[in-house]
Amino acid sequence: MNKQVIKDAKNDVITEPLRALLVRVAEELIRIARNIEDTQFLITQLTWRHASQDINYLEAMQKSDLISQEIAGLAKFLQKITEELPNQFQVNATQAHCSLTLSDLAKRLII
């Protein structure tokens, strides 16, 4: 990782390549999409016999499928954009990191 420390008047600012951060974000989106698909599969296995005639159930399952496809699509889009970024673009993601409320997610995104 090409982290850099930049001195400013108040404190040290740690930056990293924007490209590396966006790669991790795309990977996280792919992981989330897979988790939705896995959960949807399990829900279908457990409930299909009882709920398959319920139009609300069917619409909810279709919506869940669409959500996972959209997330996976966004991840692929982000991956393609990331390939175009010059390596020298740096970002300080400290404030963004602090806004994450799930510590496991924060650990995966900020290295």
Structural key phrases:
single chain; 111 residues; mainly alpha; three-stranded antiparallel sheet; 4 helices
Descriptive overview:
The chain has 111 residues and is mainly alpha-helical. It has one domain (4-109). 69% of the residues lie in helices and 11% in strands. The protein has four helices and three strands, in the order ββααβαα. The chain has helices spanning 18-51, 55-84, 94-99, 103-109, and strands spanning 4-7, 12-17, 90-91. Strands 1-2-3 form a three-stranded antiparallel β-sheet. It is elongated, with a radius of gyration of 19 Å.
How many distinct helices? Answer: 4
Mean pLDDT: 86
The CA-CA distance between the termini, in Å, is 9 Å
> What's the count of strands?
3
Please write the string of helix (H) and strand (E) elements: EEHHEHH
Largest sheet: 3 strands, antiparallel
Helix content: 55-70%
Query: Strand arrangement, largest sheet?
Result: 1-2-3
Which regions have little confidence, pLDDT < 50, spanning 5+ residues? none
Gyration radius (Cα, Å) is 19 Å
* Sheet/helix structural class: mainly alpha
Classify the beta-strand content into a percent band: 5-15%
What is the overall silhouette?
elongated
